[in-house]
Write the structure tokens for this entry.
Amino acid sequence: MNYIVWAIPVFFLFMVIEIIAAKIEGKKVYRLNDSINDLSCGVLEQVILAFVKTFLFGIYVLIFEFFVAKNWHIFNIEPSLLSWTILFILVDFLYYWAHRFSHTTAIGWAGHAVHHQSEEFNLSVALRQGTLQPFFTFIFYLPLAAFGFLPAMFLIAKSANTLYQFWIHTRLINTMGPLEWFMNTPSHHRVHHGKNEQYIDKNYAGIFIIWDRLFGSFEKEDIHPAYGVLTPLKSWNPVWANLSYFLHLGKLSIRSPFFIDKVKVWFMPPGWGPRKMPEENAPDPSTLYDKYDPKIPLNISIYATLQFAMTTIGTLYLLSQMKNMHYEKYAIATLIIVSLINIGGIFDKKTWAVYTEVLRLYSIAIFTTVHYYNSPMFFPIVFTVFIVATLFSLWIQYKWPTKRSDNAFSKEKT
């Protein structure tokens, strides 16, 4: 069972509560474009993970069963209060090192940077996860299979570790007294997301901040953090968010004049440069608190938000029904990914977005036609879908500002 997926309605409920609480306190902690992009990255991660989780979790299961067959398990572990307690602590300890790896190696950062690209800090950021990160971090947990922890126990403990970290992504909770000394709290995690010089690569903890205190990576919240990454993404495209740093490393590797540096590029700390190549420009301190925030008309924002809501519903349907699907799961997943890219393009004010939106809408209509071909409700369903696709297509083309009226983008603010 994917516990994270089943917790999604609860996540949305708490985001609504946070928005209301922020409104009461007179704080603005959400931006529509930023939050939609956070959630889009989360949707993309869950869709891809649905296809690869069997492979990743299967490696754990194979190692566990291999050690059972060989009678090599270090411990013969049965579920008990003691074994569960030890497992929760070990999972958090290994998370600390996997997380530290994700910040201190370029290839780890390429997978993890997605989570830090948001220039806001709120509960939606907790759902902004790197799609490719699990391929680099799952290795850290494999020793637990050799120790003898049952696969189901590990899955529950790892999910609990992830679920705990949701609530610490908020600016509405200041400090929490004595808990600050040994638990990871919103204050500690705000530091982790800060791009201020004193906050970079600090507070890697998942649940227990004690690991950072023990291994020298702890930093107390002092000044107000500036959120995001030192080289801003400046895009609301979730696919580009996941691939941009990998492509940057690939270009560095290809251009490097020394073979050893072509390899080192991937495993040195982020920002390291190969020999005899120009150094990367240092970020301008005066732009530390600047935010990427292109303005689009309110009605276009509402349209993009509506399309994202429909895409999210489609994602929940896919995740809940995948085991009963055949070829259609690949088509639905592809349409979801295309939808996320296009929604990002709309918020980015990309001219191509209006044209690809028309193609996307009719692609959904064509898929519906094929999917319901043998249904007794074929004609009413297909007729409705094509009518809706046509209306949406005409509306977005009519409302989208043309080159002669580009100033329409600045007349209305999201």
In short: The chain has a mean pLDDT of 91. Residues 3-214 form one domain. The radius of gyration is 23 Å. The CA atoms of residues 20 and 26 lie 10 Å apart.
